[in-house]
Amino acid sequence: xxxxxxxxxxxxxxxxxxxxxxxxxxxxxxxxxxxxxxxxxxxxxxxxxxxxxxxxxxxxxxxxxxxxxxxxxxxxxxxxxxxxxxxxxxxxxxxxxxxxxxxxxxxxxxxxxxxxxxxxxxxxxxxxxxxxxxxxxxxxxxxxxxxxxxxxxxxxxxxxxxxxxxxxxxxxxxxxxxxxxxxxxxxxxxxxxxxxxxxxxxxxxxxxxxxxxxxxxxxxxxxxxxxxxxxxxxxxxxxxxxxxxxxxxxxxxxxxxxxxxxxxxxxxxxxxxxxxxxxxxxxxxxxxxxxxxxxxxxxxx
Length: 301
Hints:
Elements: E1 4-7, H1 12-23, E2 28-32, E3 39-40, H2 46-53, E4 60-63, H3 70-75, H4 77-98, E5 102-108, H5 131-150, E6 154-159, E7 162-163, H6 172-182, E8 186-189, E9 195-196, E10 199-200, H7 201-213, E11 221-224, E12 230-231, H8 232-242, E13 249-252, H9 270-276, H10 284-299
Parallel strand pairs: 1-2, 1-4, 2-3, 4-5, 5-6, 6-11, 7-10, 8-13
Antiparallel strand pairs: 9-12
């Protein structure tokens, strides 16, 4: 069985996916710009990627590597576009030359903008607002071009607000849990007015595995979420309840002008259910409890 190449393998989703696939019996080849992966290479360097992969066979590619923080993208647009767009192009070209069985690209719900028609279907118009959003739209278009022009068996997954054990300490779920466990105030940017679909990373890993296997998935775009509709303030309140915390909720202004308008976005996952057979396997509260337990064990709190 030829391995599944996971780019961005040392990031939050990459670590989670690599573990999930390995535990499910798949051979995984991990590639990342940082040390610790099976292969150390930068997705912006086509020559370096080709050299790093020269000795390896690859059956499928799951492309996760990206600058995923919108403020970081706004602050360094060149790095953002080189990594997110040119990095995707490089991986697509490698996939084309190697004739991989499947190329799964992880996009974002951000491509729909702050106020899409609800619940959001895959046919909703795209309305990116930050450079990160635009980078995902551009990448999706290149993926589509490689599928249409070269017959590359590609799948695009648009993910809502995923969280998990290896999440960044700066993510909303991590910040809220840490604040509750430490007895600190819970800071809500833009007053916590954004409404989204937060879901545990195991669900995304499950969707990716289905996309790797299903012939019906090729050439398609799927929304992936957990099936909930929760404001960021409500999310903080759930975490406060689960941790039995008395931490105060403190409203802060938006982090950027682009985020001043609250994002209200949650998906229809009906297409993924019908085509992939996708159903969330970890609910919101169970997922949060998993992360809380992980953090408590890791830090001794």
